[in-house]
Amino acid sequence: MESLEHIKYAKSVLSQRDFEELQEYIGDDADYWPTYNFKPKDVPPRNKIEKAIVKLIGQDNHVEYWIRNPRGQEPTLWHVDANELFMKKYISENDSTEEPPFARQFPLNTHILYISIDPKMKGGELLILPNNTYVEGRPINDTNYQPLDGSRMIIVKPKENHLVFFNKPIYHATNEFKNIDPLRRDFRVSLMFSSWDYIPKPYDEWHHWNNPWIGIPAEQLKWPKGA
Q1: Does the predicted TM-score (pTM) go above 0.90?
Q2: Nearest-CA neighbor of 90 among 200, 226, 13?
Q3: By CB count within 10 A, which of 113, 139, 166, 212 is most buried?
């Protein structure tokens, strides 16, 4: 993948030993972990995920992190990374899909580290629009956004221990994926983390949360025991 000033791609970012340890720790069940997580910069790493993140980017900023394994569900639609937890918590509490403007807060950057990729996976590429930054006034959870014809697009095939970085609120998405072997379990596990120069709400209240939505109240979660 080509590198631009605001988009970088790196291979083998962790040592083989560190990566295999992280890979084993995370596993392939993203639902095992809290959906949204946060590590303040003045808090030492509390688990192996936070230790790996600190090895990669240090502790100069606060860090939000999340794990995903879509398992061949619908493709991830075009979106920008923002204060998604605050937006979903607000929607849950107000039983409305109207987003609060306060949710339109953006991190300093986003990192995507591929943890476990099924070798027989078809699809699942990361799609990046390098010239398409957040459109003022549009919602964060924007199911109707479509790039204009001819928009430049970068396509990234997921590979284990490879990392994608960008430091602008650019639109990105993922293709739908599937495994050609019906007897195998799909997996496309990735660890995403973003730097913040302040602690956004509601991480000032708690550091681990579920995935709230209409009919699903926001819950403060504990990190899995023993992890």
Answers
A1: yes
A2: 200
A3: 113
What is the separation, in whole angstroms, between the first and last Cα of the chain? 34
Task: Give the span between the Cα atoms of 33 and 29, in whole angstroms.
Answer: 8
What distances in angstroms separate CA 116 from CA 55, 79, 173, one per listed residue?
Answer: 19, 23, 19
Tokens standing for residue 134 = 């957040």
| Whole-number Cα distances in Å, 168 to 73, 81, 91, 162, 199 | 27, 9, 25, 20, 19
**Is the bond preceding residue 202 a cis peptide, omega within 30 degrees?**
yes
Q: How far apart are CA 109 and CA 82, in angstroms?
A: 10
Percent of the chain with pLDDT over 90: 73
Domains and CATH numbers, the chain: 7-209 (2.60.120)
| Contact in structure between 145 and 78 (CB atoms under 8 Å) | yes
Q: What is the pLDDT of residue 68?
A: 93
Angle (deg, nearest 10), helices 48-57 and 16-26:
140
Opening angle at CA 210, ends 205 and 212, nearest 5: 95
